[in-house]
Amino acid sequence: MDYDFDLIMERRGTNCVKWDGLVDRYGEKDLLPFWVADMDFAVAEPIQKAIIDRVQHPIYGYTQVAPSVFEAIISWLDRRHGWHVQPEWIDFTTGVVNALNLIINTYTLPGDKILVQPPVYAPFFNSVLNNGRQVVYNSLIQTDSSYTMDLGDLESKIDSRTKMLILCNPHNPVGRVWSKKELQQLAEVCLKHDLLMVSDEIHSDFIYTGYKHVPLASLSPEIAENTITCMAPSKTFNLAGLATSFVVIPSKQLRRLFRNTLQNVGVSNAFLGVTALEAAYRHGEGWLEELLIYLEENRDLVKDFLEKQVPGIKMKKPQGTYLTWLDCRGLAVEENDLQDFFIDKANIVVNDGKWFGPNGKGFVRFNIGCPRPLLQEGLCRMERAVKERSGILTGRA
């Protein structure tokens, strides 16, 4: 490998939420963080260089997006995902969650209903509720190997006030990479009932061996006209702090409405974010290819470790993302106490499954986007905590 992903970078003292936020939130200094969805890897050198070069010019004023940035996005989506996008389809926001809130306010009215598919990233339903809309839960079905969509349930919950569906593709936290067939079936239901589809594809570059990301809007012109896709380089290249994302809207009418919203709220471009985006999509592919190998090895390590050392915790192998969804219902821990158990007994911080809505109880999300020595230490802490608790419960300790 040309890149040393085992290298541990000291992040404390940089005001990062993932590490410095541990003390602020939990008052503990010896916790290891496996919660916030960013990675503990150094950003690829070409991106660092592009940022440094831009910073050398000592004026940091309002920034427009150059044609070369659009070209970099279009080329990336074409060669990585086979999706042919036109430059006029692209608009910029300061993050995918920011985009979701803007989209909800642009295309729905207070009181309208919006479908989400839990267990899912909490800002999906928070964005709906915080803007005075109603959440309709179309829960995923858990299978022996993973999760599937329940399209019968989805269709039964659609009425005259249901206006939108928010899709997570690939899915956070369960790690599903939806197949072309699944997406086609979902789109047919939404087209039948005139539901606007909003597809969060921020994890689309993290796809493991044997799977392929299919952009929802790539399925057909008809589906593209009814789809808004939210994307960003922030997960792929660990750039979340640069607050730059983009939406792809093929429909001219939908695009016009969204641009009115952008103008009304005064969204502007983060100049370093735009710089990093272009550098990442032009020069970061080699770094990503090596990272995917490393992350897949991390995923397999966690799976094997749990099966051998902590059989009370089950993990279905994620097909994509650098997040794992751990089923802790086999532990002798009350569901409401699960996160506290990991913090107090294992000295690690994970995301409680309850944060992801219905069907999340008894689960935790565990981030594997970190150097392997940190991952192994976290797993060992988990093993010790579980075995100590088991020993106490059986009278052996």
Please render the helix and strand layout as text.
Layout: H1 17-26, E1 32-33, H2 45-55, H3 67-81, E2 90-93, H4 96-107, E3 113-116, H5 123-130, E4 134-137, E5 141-142, E6 147-148, H6 151-156, E7 162-168, H7 180-192, E8 196-200, H8 221-224, E9 227-231, E10 245-248, H9 252-265, H10 271-283, H11 285-309, E11 314-315, E12 323-327, H12 338-344, E13 348-349, E14 351-352, E15 363-367, H13 372-394
Parallel strand pairs: 1-13, 3-4, 3-7, 7-8, 8-9
Antiparallel strand pairs: 2-10, 5-6, 9-10, 11-12, 12-15, 14-15
Helix pairs in contact: 2-10, 3-10, 4-5, 4-9, 11-13
How would you summarize what this structure contains?
By secondary structure, this protein is of the alpha/beta class. It has helices at 17-26, 45-55, 67-81, 96-107, 123-130, 151-156, 180-192, 221-224, 252-265, 271-283, 285-309, 338-344, 372-394; strands at residues 32-33, 90-93, 113-116, 134-137, 141-142, 147-148, 162-168, 196-200, 227-231, 245-248, 314-315, 323-327, 348-349, 351-352, 363-367.
